[in-house]
Design goal:
The chain is of the alpha+beta class and 305 residues long. It is 33% helix and 30% strand. Helix 5 packs antiparallel against helix 6.
Amino acid sequence: MGAASPVPSELLSGPDLGGGYLHQLSIDRREGTTTFTHHAQEGGQDAGGPPVGELAGLGFVHPPTPCMFGGPRCWHRRYLLPFAATPRVRFAYQRCRFVLETMLKQEHALAPVPFDDGLAEVVGRLSGPLASEGLPWYVAGSGSVRLLGGGGAPRDLDVGTVRAGVDRLGELLAEYLIEPVAPTDRPSGELVLGGRAYVGTPRSGLRVEWAVPLEPREPARWEEFAGTPGVARTVPTIYRGLTLTVSRPEYALVRAAGRGRAEAVEHALSALRKVGVDAELLDVLLARTALDEAARSALRARARD
C-alpha cells in the first residue's frame, strides 16, 4: 500500500481580531505530524489598528516564504502537537488575541506591568505543588534581579525548570495559557519545548515564559535555561515568607550588556552588590558574548567594584 496523501492546511479558526491584528489558526497534517500555526497580520481599521507595535517581542516570527493565509508579512507561532490537542491550542489562541492589545502596550512601554501581583499569583500556584513533586524551578531574567533587590520594572517573568517541569507549569497555569506547552521555535531560531501564559485579565497582567531545549543535550557550562537539574547557578531569597530560588544576577548583567541596555545593567550591578559577585560564573558568561575585550574588562571591573 502506498503512503497516505498529506492532508492540506486547514483553517481551524478565523479571521478573528485582537490587538490591531487579524488572526487565524490553521492545522497542517503531514506524514504523521501535526503542526498548528497561529497567524497574525496587521488588520487595518477593521481590526481597530494600526497596532501599537510589532509581535517579535512576543515570540512571533515571519515565515521564510509568503504565507497562504496571511501573505508575505504574516507573523507565525507554530506548535507541533497531536491532533487531539486541538482544544487546548484553540483555548491558548483565543486567550492570546484577547490579551494581545495589553501585552503589546506593555512590551512597547505604553502600559505598566503589574509584576508584583503577577509574581504573587505564579508563586502561589507553583511553589506548593512543585515542591511536593520534587520538581525544581526558579525565577530567572530581570525578575531575579528584582527579587534580589536590584530594582527595575520587568516586562515579563522568566521561569527556569527541568524538562518534567515544563508540562507541569502548563497544567498549573492552564487557565492563563496564551501558548500551549509544545515543541516550537523562537525568533532566535532555537527549537524549544515551552509555553507562555498571561497571568491576569485582558486589561492587566504579567506574561510568563518557560522553555527548555527541544532535544536533550549536553548543556553549556552553567547555562541558565538548560532544562537539566543543577546546571544554572542560583541563590535563595525570601519572598513573602517563602524561600524562592532565583538565578544569579550575572546572567541578567551579561545579557543586558550584550543588548546595550544600560539601565538594566545598573539594576543587575545593584543586585550583585547585595549578594556578591561570582567571578567564575561572570568570566564564563562573558566569554560567550560578542562584547569586545575592552567592554568585557570594563564590565568585569564594575561587577567586582
